[in-house]
Amino acid sequence: MEKDIDVFYVGDLIEKAIIYFTRDKEVPILSLQKAIFLFLYSYAVKNNHDYNEILKLAGFEPYKLGPFSEEVDGECDTLKGYDRLVIYKTGDNTVYKSKKNFTKDYTFDSIEKEVLNNVDMLLRKLSPMELTFYVYFHPVVDKNVRSYFTSSSILKDQLEKSQKHYLKSMERKGIIDEEAKDMIIYGNN
Predict the structure, then answer these.
(1) DSSP assignment, residue 27?
(2) Directed axis angle between helix 163-172 and helix 178-185, to 10°?
(3) Rounded CA separation 135/181 (Å)
(4) Is the confidence at residue 23, as pLDDT, over 80?
(5) Pure H helices in the chain
(6) pLDDT (tens digit per residue) in 140-181
(7) Residues 170 and 126 sit within 8 Å (Cβ to Cβ)
């Protein structure tokens, strides 16, 4: 049976992702926004859904730091109100962490679990700026999607100038292989 893709369904996906990604670690806002963007995009691709529609329903827009959704922030506030999430400042950064592992309260289908695990691995291995670089340049995200969601970015030039640094770090961490590296370097952008 085909699932109805509506704002409520996408909201449930966002809630599950927030709980999953913050279940046992502190996650900075930049990383959480990028992780949820990647989760929704990848989930849509895996399920042959219209990723543009899902990202639109999730409220993602081009922003100065790349894809950003006020709906994600709103869902974080709601989870904080339900006493499931802690939100606090550390310096200039906002950080999120679940009060405990609430994943047992949610049902994850096999594709959700697979995509959540893949994105969670990136979240664990990459710094916020490395994850942002991944979203901006990795060929796993459609070129037109990357182009649109980075169109208002104040980080894009800085990330491009530091491309060698990020590629070397991501290669060392086992995130990219030679093929992906070459696609990023030689014009898949």
Answers:
(1) E
(2) 170
(3) 14
(4) yes
(5) 7-21, 29-46, 51-57, 70-81, 110-125, 128-137, 143-149, 156-161, 163-172, 178-185
(6) 999 999 999 999 999 999 999 999 999 999 999 999 999 889
(7) yes
